[in-house]
């Protein structure tokens, strides 16, 4: 513990402010930028909480991609029928004017 005190490091990790988290979430909402931002935060973030969040977010993104690919491989015809049905709904007028 004495060496940690001499080097200026304590057992506390750095805290991340609310504004910092809001900026992080805004960056993660931008497609394309989010993957780059996650990798940069993972490498350069000083706070352990932010690094852990980035790892969790990357695992979640990977899980969503795997599940989407699995659904496309297992249910291709059902998804094609669903897409055609939704296109038909979008083509119908919601309100008919006299």
What is shown here, in short?
With 98 residues, the chain is mostly helical.
Describe the SSE topology:
Layout: H1 2-7, H2 18-28, H3 33-44, H4 48-74, H5 76-91
3D structure, described in words:
The chain is mainly alpha-helical. The protein has one domain. 73% of the residues lie in helices and 0% in strands. It has 5 helices and no strands. α3 packs antiparallel against α4. The radius of gyration is 23 Å and the shape is elongated. The chain starts with a helix and ends in a 7-residue tail after the last helix. Residues 1-8 have low confidence and may be disordered.
Total of domains: 1
- Principal-axis shape equals elongated
> How much is the average pLDDT?
85
Tell me the radius of gyration.
23 Å
The total beta strand count reads 0
Structural class: mainly alpha
In angstroms, what separates the terminal alpha carbons? 81 Å
Q: Strand content of the residues, in percent?
A: under 5%
The helicity comes to over 70%
Please give the count of helices: 5
Ranges where pLDDT stays below 50 over 5 or more residues in a row are 1-8
Order of helices and strands: HHHHH
């Amino acid at each position: 513990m004495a060496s940690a005190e001499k080097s200026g490091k304590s057992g506390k990790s750095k805290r991340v402010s609310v504004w910092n988290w809001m900026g992080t979430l805004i960056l993660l909402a931008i497609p394309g930028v989010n993957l780059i931002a996650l990798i940069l935060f993972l490498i350069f973030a000083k706070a352990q909480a932010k690094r852990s969040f980035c790892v969790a977010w990357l695992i979640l993104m990977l899980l969503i991609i795997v599940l989407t690919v699995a659904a496309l491989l297992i249910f291709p015809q059902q998804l094609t029928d669903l897409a055609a049905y939704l296109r038909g709904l979008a083509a119908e007028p919601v309100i008919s004017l006299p």
